[in-house]
Amino acid sequence: MAPKEKDNAVYKTTNWFGKKMVRVAGGAVEVKGLENVPKDKPVLVVSNHQSNMDIPVLLGYLNKPIGFVSKAEIKKFPVVPTWMELMNCVFMDRSDRRQSLQAIKDGIELLKNGHSIVIFPEGTRSKGGEVGEFKAGSFHLAVKSGVAILPVTLDGTYKMFEANGNRMKPAHATVTISKPITPEDYANMDIKELTKHTQEVIASQLHK
Protein backbone atom coordinates (compact mmCIF):
# COMPACT_ATOMS: atom_id res chain seq x y z
CA MET A 1 0.00 0.00 0.00
CA ALA A 2 1.35 3.44 -0.95
CA PRO A 3 2.13 5.80 1.97
CA LYS A 4 -0.76 8.12 1.15
CA GLU A 5 -3.26 5.23 0.89
CA LYS A 6 -2.04 3.75 4.19
CA ASP A 7 -2.23 7.13 5.93
CA ASN A 8 -5.78 7.68 4.68
CA ALA A 9 -6.89 4.23 5.83
CA VAL A 10 -5.53 4.77 9.35
CA TYR A 11 -6.83 8.35 9.32
CA LYS A 12 -10.45 7.21 9.02
CA THR A 13 -10.15 5.47 12.39
CA THR A 14 -8.06 8.11 14.18
CA ASN A 15 -10.30 10.91 12.89
CA TRP A 16 -13.35 9.07 14.25
CA PHE A 17 -11.56 8.52 17.57
CA GLY A 18 -10.63 12.19 17.91
CA LYS A 19 -14.18 13.40 17.30
CA LYS A 20 -15.54 10.69 19.60
CA MET A 21 -13.32 11.84 22.49
CA VAL A 22 -14.55 15.41 22.08
CA ARG A 23 -18.17 14.20 22.03
CA VAL A 24 -17.60 12.14 25.18
CA ALA A 25 -16.28 15.28 26.87
CA GLY A 26 -19.34 17.17 25.63
CA GLY A 27 -17.01 19.62 23.94
CA ALA A 28 -17.42 21.79 20.87
CA VAL A 29 -14.55 22.61 18.52
CA GLU A 30 -14.40 25.62 16.21
CA VAL A 31 -11.84 25.47 13.40
CA LYS A 32 -10.47 28.58 11.72
CA GLY A 33 -8.19 28.57 8.69
CA LEU A 34 -8.84 25.04 7.45
CA GLU A 35 -8.14 26.32 3.95
CA ASN A 36 -4.49 26.75 5.00
CA VAL A 37 -3.95 22.98 5.35
CA PRO A 38 -2.06 21.70 2.28
CA LYS A 39 -4.00 18.78 0.82
CA ASP A 40 -1.33 16.79 -0.98
CA LYS A 41 1.93 17.80 0.69
CA PRO A 42 3.47 16.69 3.98
CA VAL A 43 3.92 19.40 6.60
CA LEU A 44 5.45 19.76 10.03
CA VAL A 45 2.50 20.80 12.17
CA VAL A 46 3.71 22.98 15.05
CA SER A 47 1.21 23.55 17.86
CA ASN A 48 1.05 24.97 21.35
CA HIS A 49 0.18 22.40 24.00
CA GLN A 50 -2.59 23.14 26.52
CA SER A 51 -4.05 19.76 27.33
CA ASN A 52 -4.13 15.99 26.98
CA MET A 53 -7.15 16.71 24.78
CA ASP A 54 -4.91 18.40 22.18
CA ILE A 55 -4.14 15.11 20.44
CA PRO A 56 -7.80 14.01 20.02
CA VAL A 57 -8.71 17.53 18.85
CA LEU A 58 -5.97 17.57 16.21
CA LEU A 59 -6.82 14.02 15.10
CA GLY A 60 -10.48 14.91 14.75
CA TYR A 61 -10.36 18.40 13.30
CA LEU A 62 -7.14 19.09 11.37
CA ASN A 63 -8.55 17.29 8.33
CA LYS A 64 -5.24 15.62 7.48
CA PRO A 65 -3.51 12.32 8.37
CA ILE A 66 -0.91 13.06 11.05
CA GLY A 67 1.55 11.40 13.35
CA PHE A 68 3.16 12.87 16.46
CA VAL A 69 6.57 13.23 18.05
CA SER A 70 5.83 11.58 21.39
CA LYS A 71 7.60 10.80 24.64
CA ALA A 72 9.14 7.32 24.67
CA GLU A 73 7.26 6.49 27.91
CA ILE A 74 4.07 6.11 25.85
CA LYS A 75 5.43 2.77 24.67
CA LYS A 76 4.70 1.35 28.13
CA PHE A 77 0.94 1.63 27.62
CA PRO A 78 -0.98 -1.30 26.06
CA VAL A 79 -2.41 -0.92 22.52
CA VAL A 80 -1.48 2.77 22.20
CA PRO A 81 2.03 2.20 20.74
CA THR A 82 0.64 -0.05 18.02
CA TRP A 83 -1.75 2.63 16.82
CA MET A 84 0.92 5.30 17.10
CA GLU A 85 3.25 3.26 14.91
CA LEU A 86 0.47 2.89 12.33
CA MET A 87 0.08 6.68 12.43
CA ASN A 88 3.83 7.08 11.77
CA CYS A 89 4.58 8.59 15.17
CA VAL A 90 8.14 9.11 16.38
CA PHE A 91 9.10 8.15 19.94
CA MET A 92 11.73 10.35 21.60
CA ASP A 93 13.60 9.81 24.86
CA ARG A 94 14.83 13.29 25.75
CA SER A 95 17.12 11.87 28.44
CA ASP A 96 19.04 9.89 25.80
CA ARG A 97 20.81 12.23 23.35
CA ARG A 98 21.70 9.47 20.90
CA GLN A 99 18.13 8.17 20.79
CA SER A 100 16.78 11.72 20.42
CA LEU A 101 19.03 12.33 17.41
CA GLN A 102 17.87 9.04 15.88
CA ALA A 103 14.25 10.04 16.46
CA ILE A 104 14.87 13.30 14.58
CA LYS A 105 16.41 11.32 11.70
CA ASP A 106 13.40 8.97 11.66
CA GLY A 107 11.04 11.95 11.57
CA ILE A 108 12.94 13.54 8.69
CA GLU A 109 12.60 10.33 6.67
CA LEU A 110 8.87 10.14 7.38
CA LEU A 111 8.39 13.72 6.18
CA LYS A 112 10.47 13.08 3.07
CA ASN A 113 8.28 10.04 2.37
CA GLY A 114 5.08 12.09 2.46
CA HIS A 115 3.88 11.74 6.07
CA SER A 116 2.89 14.77 8.15
CA ILE A 117 4.07 15.05 11.75
CA VAL A 118 2.94 17.15 14.73
CA ILE A 119 5.31 18.62 17.31
CA PHE A 120 4.57 20.42 20.59
CA PRO A 121 7.81 22.39 21.02
CA GLU A 122 6.89 23.79 24.45
CA GLY A 123 7.70 20.29 25.70
CA THR A 124 4.96 20.34 28.33
CA ARG A 125 1.32 21.35 28.71
CA SER A 126 0.59 24.97 29.59
CA LYS A 127 -2.84 23.97 30.96
CA GLY A 128 -4.35 27.21 29.73
CA GLY A 129 -1.52 29.67 30.26
CA GLU A 130 0.29 31.71 27.67
CA VAL A 131 2.39 29.97 25.03
CA GLY A 132 5.66 28.82 26.61
CA GLU A 133 9.09 29.14 25.07
CA PHE A 134 9.59 26.81 22.12
CA LYS A 135 12.55 24.43 22.05
CA ALA A 136 14.41 24.63 18.73
CA GLY A 137 15.56 21.03 18.30
CA SER A 138 12.48 19.61 16.60
CA PHE A 139 12.45 22.38 13.98
CA HIS A 140 15.31 20.53 12.27
CA LEU A 141 12.56 18.15 11.11
CA ALA A 142 11.26 20.82 8.73
CA VAL A 143 14.58 22.32 7.68
CA LYS A 144 16.29 19.02 6.88
CA SER A 145 13.29 17.51 5.09
CA GLY A 146 12.42 20.68 3.18
CA VAL A 147 8.74 20.79 4.16
CA ALA A 148 6.54 23.71 5.19
CA ILE A 149 5.67 24.42 8.80
CA LEU A 150 1.94 24.61 9.58
CA PRO A 151 1.39 26.77 12.70
CA VAL A 152 -1.64 25.72 14.78
CA THR A 153 -2.99 27.54 17.83
CA LEU A 154 -5.10 25.55 20.29
CA ASP A 155 -7.21 27.56 22.72
CA GLY A 156 -9.57 26.16 25.35
CA THR A 157 -8.73 22.46 25.15
CA TYR A 158 -7.58 22.52 28.80
CA LYS A 159 -11.13 23.49 29.81
CA MET A 160 -12.30 20.05 28.67
CA PHE A 161 -9.99 18.25 31.11
CA GLU A 162 -7.19 19.87 33.16
CA ALA A 163 -9.30 22.80 34.42
CA ASN A 164 -11.69 20.30 36.05
CA GLY A 165 -9.29 18.25 38.14
CA ASN A 166 -8.54 16.00 35.15
CA ARG A 167 -12.21 15.17 34.63
CA MET A 168 -13.90 15.64 31.27
CA LYS A 169 -16.30 18.57 31.10
CA PRO A 170 -18.16 20.32 28.25
CA ALA A 171 -16.20 23.28 26.91
CA HIS A 172 -15.55 25.23 23.72
CA ALA A 173 -12.14 24.99 22.07
CA THR A 174 -10.74 26.78 19.04
CA VAL A 175 -8.24 25.46 16.50
CA THR A 176 -6.68 28.29 14.50
CA ILE A 177 -4.58 27.23 11.51
CA SER A 178 -2.27 29.96 10.21
CA LYS A 179 -0.76 30.10 6.75
CA PRO A 180 2.13 27.67 6.17
CA ILE A 181 5.67 28.92 6.67
CA THR A 182 7.26 27.60 3.48
CA PRO A 183 10.91 26.63 2.91
CA GLU A 184 11.20 29.80 0.85
CA ASP A 185 9.91 31.82 3.81
CA TYR A 186 12.48 30.40 6.23
CA ALA A 187 15.40 30.03 3.79
CA ASN A 188 17.31 32.95 5.33
CA MET A 189 16.47 32.18 8.97
CA ASP A 190 18.67 30.21 11.31
CA ILE A 191 17.00 27.60 13.51
CA LYS A 192 16.57 29.99 16.46
CA GLU A 193 14.99 32.66 14.28
CA LEU A 194 12.63 30.11 12.73
CA THR A 195 11.64 28.81 16.16
CA LYS A 196 10.98 32.33 17.49
CA HIS A 197 9.02 33.34 14.39
CA THR A 198 6.80 30.25 14.57
CA GLN A 199 6.18 30.79 18.28
CA GLU A 200 5.14 34.39 17.62
CA VAL A 201 2.72 33.35 14.86
CA ILE A 202 1.07 30.77 17.13
CA ALA A 203 0.94 33.06 20.17
CA SER A 204 -0.61 35.87 18.12
CA GLN A 205 -3.75 33.77 17.57
CA LEU A 206 -4.29 32.84 21.22
CA HIS A 207 -7.40 34.26 22.96
CA LYS A 208 -8.73 35.80 19.74
UniProtKB/TrEMBL annotation:
UniProt entry tagged with the keyword Lipid biosynthesis: yes
Record-level Gene Ontology MF annotations: 1-acylglycerol-3-phosphate O-acyltransferase activity
SUPFAM superfamilies (alphabetical): Glycerol-3-phosphate (1)-acyltransferase
Cellular-component GO terms for this entry: membrane
Catalyzed chemical reaction(s): a 1-acyl-sn-glycero-3-phosphate + an acyl-CoA = a 1,2-diacyl-sn-glycero-3-phosphate + CoA
One GO BP annotation of this record: phosphatidic acid biosynthetic process
The keyword Transcription is annotated on this UniProt entry: no
Enzyme class, broadest EC rank: transferase
Domain of life: Bacteria
Pfam families on file: Acyltransferase
Pathway note: Lipid metabolism
Keywords annotated in UniProt: Acyltransferase, Lipid biosynthesis, Lipid metabolism, Phospholipid biosynthesis, Phospholipid metabolism, Transferase
Known EC number: 2.3.1.51
Domain Phospholipid/glycerol acyltransferase positions: 43-157
NCBIfam families according to UniProt: AGP_acyltrn
Domain description: The HXXXXD motif is essential for acyltransferase activity and may constitute the binding site for the phosphate moiety of the glycerol-3-phosphate.
Family of this protein: Belongs to the 1-acyl-sn-glycerol-3-phosphate acyltransferase family.
Annotated protein name in UniProt: 1-acyl-sn-glycerol-3-phosphate acyltransferase
Species assigned in the record: Bacillus cereus
Lineage: Bacteria, Bacillati, Bacillota, Bacilli, Bacillales
